[in-house]
Amino acid sequence: MANPRKPSHLKAVQGTDRPDRANPNEPVASTAIPVAPDYLSVRAVEKFLQLCAILDGMGIASRDDNDALSMLSGLLVEIEEDTVLLDSVGAFYMPSEESGIIRAHPAVSRLSTNRQRAQALLGEFGLTPAARSKVSAGKSPEANPFAQFA
Fold first, then answer.
1. Mean pLDDT, residues 88-101
2. Which residues lie below 8 Å from residue 73, measured CB to CB, with a gap of 6+?
């Protein structure tokens, strides 16, 4: 599978930006903080706000990413709920009511799928250690102590 396209601002920070491959007409994302949509649960809104705070600290929060952030926060809540459910049941496997055959609990498959989807979305936002290790953010220049004499 091919690697997903890297956002231009990450290329610039990483030092791999090439003018011959740049899109001069690339849309610029809004710098406004995302707002949680009304359809999210209370727990998903909490996750949404946590993610917004992290992304704002990284300097990449954008209201243009509301849908992706909403999806990610919902996935993370589903993962928590399924983990708690499986922990309370105490087993990943259960006998089928009709045939008595032992099968995996339905939450096991859902948990596995949601973890993969969440991992992909976390990587898109640079919210995993591996994704962050690919970026070397430059430090802001310190104030010139001799600027007052210029």
1. 79
2. 36, 40, 44, 45, 47, 48, 51
- Write out pLDDT tens, residues 75-89: 999 999 999 999 998
Secondary structure of the chain in HEC code, one letter for each residue:
CCCCCCCHHHHHHHCCCCHHHCCCCCCCCCCCCCCCCCCCCHHHHHHHHHHHHHHHHHCCCCHHHHHHHHHHHHHHHHHHHHHHHHHHHCCCEEECCCCCCEEECHHHHHHHHHHHHHHHHHHHCCCCHHHHHCCCCCCCCCCCCCHHHC
Q: What angle do CA 10, 4, 6 make, to 5 degrees?
A: 15
Q: Which one is predicted more confidently, 135 or 50? A: 50
Q: Which residues pair with 95 in a beta bridge?
A: 102
The torsion of the CA quartet 81, 85, 87, 88, rounded to 10 degrees, works out to: 130
- d(CA 73, CA 80) in angstroms, rounded, equals 11
Contact present, 47 and 76 (Cβ < 8 Å): yes
Cα distance between residue 121 and residue 103, in whole Å: 30
